[in-house]
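## tool: complex_structure
## caller: assistant
## args:
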Amino acid sequence: MKDIFHLHDVYDRLQLRRMQVAIAIICVIIGMLLVTQLQIQGSISEKLQQESKQDLGEIIRDLDIEVRALQGEERDLRMRLLKYQNAAENQQSILNEAAHNLENLKIFAGLIGVKGEGVKVIIGDEYRFLNCYDLMDVANELKAGGAEVISINEIRITAKTSFVNDSEGQVVINGRKVTSPFTIKTIGDSETLSQVVGLLGGIQHALTSYEGVTFEVTKMENLEIPQA
Amino acid sequence: MWPLVGLLIGIALGLFLKIPIPPIYAKYLGVATLAALDSAFGGIRASLEKEFNDKLFISGFFSNTILAAFIVYMGDRLGVEPLYYAAIVAFGVRLFQNIAAIRRIFFESKRWGKE
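## result:
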């Protein structure tokens, strides 16, 4: 009986040793698994999955802002594309504008005749008080008041026009003698121009203080001033 | 005694090696770890009940671990992600049962202390 017990004991001890080695090996593997898993979870916790709600909200907000910025950029780029596509049209419009400017300059230089509403001012000067400077003042006043075109006794006033008094005190414009009554035609906004002339302390006020000088201002619907 | 030493060696190895596993596989590894724990406790229980078989134990450990990860993987691929919970519940329940059995043996018999 003792022998049997003894045998059983030996068997048990062997079995125990094997068992312990096996469990130990498995435990090595479990330890590695556990540590690795814990490390992964730790690294994830720094990432999106474990972010607090507030952080997630912030991330979403940031992304929203980024999206909006990108959308704005896209819009800008589209605008630029459109602009380039319209480049030809733009050049056309620049050309048109240039043509318009040319027209204005031609008018200013007196190269073409002009029609339109305006004001006719007839200045009478019975005793020949007025000299060329007075007429120049009238022309300048009208120009400052927005007159597009001015003519005095059918002489177109341009940048190159000369105003001179001759030896007899006669006014000479562009080498042509001009005598009273001076008919000044001007094209522009008739209301504004008539106000400019009739302003208190203005040109009419100043000149009519001379004896025999009269002003007659007429608004005209349709004036025509030929080229110089 | 031996299992504890093994566990410590494993932890040290894990810390030292820092096995780089992408976070996407964390789920698989987690379930696999659970299965491994279950196997280990199963082994301890078997040894206490004197029914320990080392071949059964080692093969059970690996097959359970791989099967657990595979179930989770299959769940993901099939679009049945709750399969993940099935694995967790199955191994979790077994884990508790094993621990309970170990506890019972520990308190009911004196063999543990004598050997």
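## assistant note: Chain B touches chain A through 40 residues (CB under 8 Å). The helical segments of chain B are 2-17, 26-48, 54-78, 83-108, 111-114. Handing back to user.
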